[in-house]
Input
Amino acid sequence: MATLLAIHRPGGRTQRCDARCYQATLGSECDCVCGGVNHAKGLQQALILTRKQVQRWIEAARRRHSDIIGVEIGVEAQMNDLFLVEDIVANHENDHQDGRIMSQ
Ligand SMILES: [Zn+2]
Output
């Protein structure tokens, strides 16, 4: 199970974006660190969205919580220029569909 982003806080309070988020069923509750962006998107789309937006999610988490002790970005979700170029081309249409979320 790939964790895309984990935000660690004291006392074992770790918030993750993982399969419970990106493989969730549409319409179910989500209060994930990704802000619901990856929710029910499936792994491939979630990886692409995470590469593009993960820094924004980390900044948002740091604004909400001053006690963050660690941030982990999943290996597969880390920025990779080779993959990124292909992903941008391959997922151009999806970007438009996601415009509502992306513009938040
Ligand atoms: Zn998530």
In short: DSSP finds five helices and three strands in the chain. The radius of gyration is 13 Å.
